[in-house]
């Protein structure tokens, strides 16, 4: 009897070792290796050519001979979802959606499936986690009709392939990829080999037949998508569904998109009837702001092509311990440390013996440089115990020498502030030329951090 050959595969990165290793030399993670049987090459695995429903295989072609027809995207009823994808769903694309358990991934895709079904799109909803009756119960709660939507509770990839071949849908939802098994791969469900093989199958189905495939992916404790990193490289679009379990707002963010921008985000409100779009997120983030509160500053941040007004809050208190604390929520902690060092060196604020706690209100995460001025103003406001003008907002990047540097899309930012009733905005001095400020708002250019603090905290 021939000896069964085995190998050990890292669940995080897919690194293969002939023996067990406690520490992966490729990704550096610990205790991630699992034993797998070496797969013998079978006839089904050998014939991996891309083939459509008609049995036609792809062939090499000259570029000049390729027939190209520009396919228009098909839009859903969710403008937020369309924005994140770059203007709608591209036929034949493979879209991966990840997020924490219970955040609303299945709810989002069930609502999107219902919307596409009402547009005469044929949908196949495959679930490896729920029965058909459970999905039907959730669909009734979400008021999803689904006249052209098929429910298929199945975990076998061979059976799913046959169902797709028989129904020939316009879009397929796989919920989730970690619960589907490939019968030709001899390893546990959810393993690296299984996830890679299933994703390759789904990609072939999407590209050869023009079927849009939505795939739900689990995330690890660190917040990244479970499975090998190649999973994200294989798909066309990677979306993360984020949010705080203690708040009802959810943020859909693109981290990879072959057909659009990766800077866009969509904001939803989780209610009893499902996910509702938030048309004007700036009003949501500012509605609970206290007037004349010290340590508060408003910034106009750009998320893709959308300007969003967010309140940045700071609390500066004398340090009890030897080393001052720097804690930030929704803002990069290293950015906060740099800005506080600039405040101490260039603006004369003695912050080395002060604890600082900063937060972007509403649970949103801000990463762009244009938030620097608002962060600095909020820290200075709390330190000096002076409130900022509630009708004033701040835009600008701060350099290490204390200068206020220009930012992009200043006209859109100022226009959004004017729409929400703000009367004055502090912007970089070098951003004043080349455009005309809208009526009803005063635009003030500042060159240095000290100048901005003096104007904001009169």
From TrEMBL:
Residues 355-458 are annotated as: Lon-protease-like. CDD domains: RadA_SMS_N. Pfam families: AAA_25, ChlI, Zn_ribbon_LapB. InterPro entries: AAA+_ATPase (IPR003593), DNA_repair_RadA (IPR004504), P-loop_NTPase (IPR027417), RecA_ATP-bd (IPR020588), Ribosomal_Su5_D2-typ_SF (IPR020568), Ribsml_uS5_D2-typ_fold_subgr (IPR014721), Rubredoxin_2 (IPR041166). Keywords: ATP-binding, DNA damage, DNA repair, DNA-binding, Hydrolase, Metal-binding, Nucleotide-binding, Stress response, Zinc, Zinc-finger. A motif (RadA KNRFG motif) lies at residues 256-260. It comes from the Bacteria. Coiled coil: none annotated. Residues 70-219 form the RecA family profile domain. ATP binds at residues 99-106. PROSITE patterns: RECA_2. Belongs to the RecA family. RadA subfamily. NCBIfam families: sms. The middle region has homology to RecA with ATPase motifs including the RadA KNRFG motif, while the C-terminus is homologous to Lon protease. DNA-dependent ATPase involved in processing of recombination intermediates, plays a role in repairing DNA breaks. Stimulates the branch migration of RecA-mediated strand transfer reactions, allowing the 3' invading strand to extend heteroduplex DNA faster. Binds ssDNA in the presence of ADP but not other nucleotides, has ATPase activity that is stimulated by ssDNA and various branched DNA structures, but inhibited by SSB. Does not have RecA's homology-searching function. Plays a role in repairing double-strand DNA breaks, probably involving stabilizing or processing branched DNA or blocked replication forks. This is DNA repair protein RadA. The gene is radA.
């Amino acid at each position: 009897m021939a000896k069964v050959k085995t190998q050990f595969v890292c669940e995080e990165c897919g690194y293969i070792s002939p023996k067990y290793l406690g520490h992966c030399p490729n990704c550096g993670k610990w205790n991630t290796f699992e034993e797998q049987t070496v797969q013998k090459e079978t006839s089904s695995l050998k014939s991996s050519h891309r083939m459509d429903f008609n049995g036609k295989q792809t062939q090499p072609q000259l570029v000049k001979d390729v027939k190209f027809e520009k396919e228009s995207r098909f839009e859903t009823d969710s403008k937020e979802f369309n924005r994140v994808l770059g203007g709608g769903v591209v036929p034949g694309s493979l879209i991966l959606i990840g997020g924490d358990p219970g955040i609303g991934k299945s709810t989002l895709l069930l609502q999107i499936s219902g919307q596409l079904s009402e547009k005469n799109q044929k949908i196949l909803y495959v679930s490896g986690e729920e029965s058909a009756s459970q999905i039907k119960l959730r669909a009734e709660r979400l008021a999803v009709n689904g006249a052209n939507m098929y429910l298929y509770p199945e975990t076998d990839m061979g059976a799913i392939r046959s169902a797709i071949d028989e129904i020939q849908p316009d879009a397929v939802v796989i919920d989730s990829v970690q619960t589907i098994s490939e019968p030709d791969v001899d390893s546990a469900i959810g393993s690296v080999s299984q996830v890679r093989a299933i994703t390759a199958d789904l990609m072939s189905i999407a590209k050869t037949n023009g079927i849009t495939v939505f795939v739900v992916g689990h995330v690890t404790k660190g917040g990244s998508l479970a499975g090998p990193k190649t999973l994200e490289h294989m798909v066309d679009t990677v979306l993360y569904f984020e949010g705080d379990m203690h708040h009802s707002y959810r943020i859909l963010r693109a981290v990879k998109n072959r057909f659009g921008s990766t800077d866009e985000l969509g904001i939803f409100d989780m209610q009893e009837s499902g996910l509702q779009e938030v048309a004007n997120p700036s009003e949501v983030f500012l509605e609970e702001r206290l007037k004349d509160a010290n340590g508060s500053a408003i910034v106009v941040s750009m998320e893709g092509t959308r300007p969003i007004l967010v309140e940045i809050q700071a609390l500066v208190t004398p340090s009890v311990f030897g080393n001052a604390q720097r804690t930030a929520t929704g803002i990069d902690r290293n950015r906060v440390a740099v800005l506080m060092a600039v405040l101490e060196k260039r603006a004369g604020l003695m912050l080395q013996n002060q604890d600082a706690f900063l937060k972007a209100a509403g649970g949103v995460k801000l990463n762009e440089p244009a938030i620097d001025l608002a962060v600095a103003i909020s820290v200075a406001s709390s330190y000096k115990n002076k409130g900022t003008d509630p009708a004033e907002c701040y835009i600008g990047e701060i350099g290490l020498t204390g200068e206020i540097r220009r930012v992009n899309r200043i006209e859109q930012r100022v226009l959004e502030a004017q729409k929400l009733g703000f009367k004055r905005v502090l912007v970089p001095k070098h951003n004043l030329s080349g455009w005309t400020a809208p009526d009803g708002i005063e635009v003030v250019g500042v060159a240095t951090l000290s100048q901005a603090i003096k104007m904001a905290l009169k």
